[in-house]
Amino acid sequence: MRKALSRRDFLKNAGRVGAGAASVLSAGSVLDVPLIGTRIFAQTKEETPAPASPRVVRVISEKWQTEDKKVNDAVVKRMIHESVRQLTGKTDVSAAWKSLFSSGEKVGVKFNNVSRDYCRTNMPVMQAVLEGLKEAGVPREQITFLEQGAVPFTGGLQPDLTPKTEVEFGHGKTRLTPFLTDQVDCLICVPDLKHHHRTGVTGALKNFSHSKSFMDNPSEFHSNNCDPYVAELCALPHFRKKRRLNICCGFKVIFEDGPVPRPRHIEDYHGVLASIDPVAMDQICYEVVKDIRKKKGLSNRVFDTMVRHIATAEKMELGIADSSKIDLVEVPLA
């Protein structure tokens, strides 16, 4: 029987999913984690209608790591596919990916090399995305992976990352790369869930707005906690029209002194987040980092004042930042 629960309590406990929370669940059962406003589903194959509000799906499994702390590639890939399936509400993985991408499209997939692939999950995530796009009929030669980590992934569309096209975006101007302006039809954003010493938290928005893969000298746009730069850059039509899917690697969370990973500032989270809405995703990321920090005894007074770009992005109609309007779905993976 499902409980009337507290969303805030869920987020407080999200960084410490225990054996009772991440264990194998039977159909119709729920996690023993208190929450309200967050729906918890056992893994099912029922098709669900698309939500009127923006949906953020979190698929969880402690089995993404083996007992000796090595990455279980097969589980990671299952988590990615299930997050997309639950996000789209489709009955199977193939239908889910086909609902988002078509065979004639050229697709760019953007990881984040600043995080240094600290969970060592980029390769299985990349393979899962490749498999999903294949299900949608997108051939390998039409796919580019950027900043995926130290292990090269050869083949596919060769990106031109030389900044050329000059654009203005409200409080600045930059030059965009042909990869962004001309080479790809749609983009998949694959950020890491982490703290950032300038913006408080980073996720789907900043993974695009401050990347040398897309533009010239993004380091120039870091003043005032990167606000309004993050939102204004993401509002450029090259991002707004081409962004298709956001998949956040939340296997572990950097909760302090980010974005560079340091072992003492990393907490297990055991999750993958997926959303069409980058603002909704970043709002959930912000709440997760904030509650982990609180659990660790860290003050959030300055942290809260740093996180400005998410609200600005909502004002610029890039997505929804109001938590009460976000359809947050929790899916334990058996």
Strand content: 15-25%
**Secondary-structure element order, N to C:** HHEEHHEHEEEHEEEHHHHEEHHHE
- Assign a percent range to the helix content: 25-40%
Tell me the span between the first and last alpha carbons.
19 Å
- Largest sheet features: 10 strands, mixed
Give the averaged pLDDT, no decimals: 87
Keywords:
334 residues, alpha/beta, 10-stranded mixed sheet, two-stranded antiparallel sheet, 13 helices, 31% helix, globular, disordered N terminus
Summarize the structure.
The chain is an alpha/beta fold. It contains 13 helices and twelve strands.
Please outline the helices and strands.
Blueprint: H1 7-13, H2 19-22, E1 38-40, E2 55-60, H3 73-88, H4 93-98, E3 107-110, H5 122-135, E4 143-146, E5 165-168, E6 173-176, H6 178-183, E7 186-189, E8 192-196, E9 200-202, H7 204-209, H8 223-226, H9 229-234, H10 237-240, E10 243-254, E11 266-275, H11 278-295, H12 301-306, H13 309-315, E12 327-332
Parallel strand pairs: 1-12, 2-12, 3-4, 3-7, 7-10, 8-10
Antiparallel strand pairs: 2-11, 5-6, 8-9, 10-11
Description:
There is one protein chain. This protein is of the alpha/beta class and 334 residues long. α3 (73-88) crosses α5. The protein has one domain. It contains 13 helices and twelve strands. A hairpin with a 4-residue loop joins β5 and β6. The strands form two sheets. Strands 1, 2, 3, 4, 7, 8, 9, 10, 11 and 12 form a ten-stranded mixed sheet that branches. A two-stranded antiparallel ribbon has the order 5-6.
